[in-house]
Amino acid sequence: METSTNLKELVKQKYSEIALQDKDTNASSCCGATSSCDDPVYKLMADDYDNLKGYNTDADLGLGCGLPTQFAKIKTGDVVVDLGSGAGNDCFVARHETGDSGKVIGIDFTEAMINKARTNAEKLGLHNVEFRLGDIDNMPASDGFADVIISNCVLNLLPNKTTILKEINRVLKPGGHFSISDVVLVGELPEKIKNTAEMYAGCVSGAIQKDDYLKLIKEAGFTTIEIQKEKVITIPDSILKEYLTAEEVAMYHDSKVGIYSITVFAKKENYCKPGSGCC
Asked: Which of 22, 120, 165, 258 is the most exposed place for a label (fewest CB within 10 A)?
């Protein structure tokens, strides 16, 4: 398997390519990857944004696996941070919830995505939505900055999930919370899929076990952990056959491996040291 640094660079390269494509081109590829697929996995992962206010089609590259903004309990005036903000889709939905008195910060480590998101924000005339270039395992945001953190199908792409969760805890205000949509597993994927770089960057091989995912959240100090939504993701045989033999595809189906999109809510403890002035 690739090293953590190599995997991050792989994801950055792939998503830079996606940012420079239009949505129709992404729709004809596997999770936005550059190889053609008969049944794009992203269509099976993505949820329908059409009924969410603030949704902008130009900012939707079809790369999500849930609707974290629908469950994030965002209030008017909140400061919201979106991790892996892409072209700005979830930021613009969050901005509708925060209103003019709130603020939304999108963080992405792909310069092409940041440029695309800024262009979309300018077209929409939104002046309290900001996009910052940076890694989400070392966020360009101060301690206790955000009321709410959201993310859509991003943590599964990156190997350093523990570090990212610690950063989420740092950036959230005491009593703040997150709502994150991500891909998790129940059972083990075939090694050929786990070790395939394109599947890592575009689809599901970076996902970890569901129980381990929830355990990492708890170990990072979060409470009130709740799965807000869960759905099964099925990879079509037309994609599996690009990586596995016919016999291996049959074995994969017999193994009953479960791939799920989950949206998880959790809170940072509401603590305050006496004398610090925050109480």
From this structure: 22
Domains (ranges, CATH) in the chain? 4-183+207-231+261-268 (3.40.50.150)
pLDDT tens profile 206-216: 789 999 999 99
Tokens of 99: 């209103």
Reported as a single tens digit per residue, the pLDDT across 33-88 is: 334 444 344 455 667 787 889 988 888 877 888 999 999 999 999 999 999 999 99
C-alpha distances (whole Å) from 170 to each of 28, 129, 221 are 39, 21, 10
Q: Which amino acid is at 167?
A: E
With H, G, I as helix, E, B as strand and everything else as coil, classify residue 52. Answer: coil
**In the chain, at which residue ranges do the beta strands (DSSP E only) sit?**
79-83, 103-108, 129-133, 146-152, 172-186, 222-232, 258-268
**Mean pLDDT of all residues in 87-99:** 96
> Are the C-beta atoms of 246 and 151 separated by less than 8 Å?
no
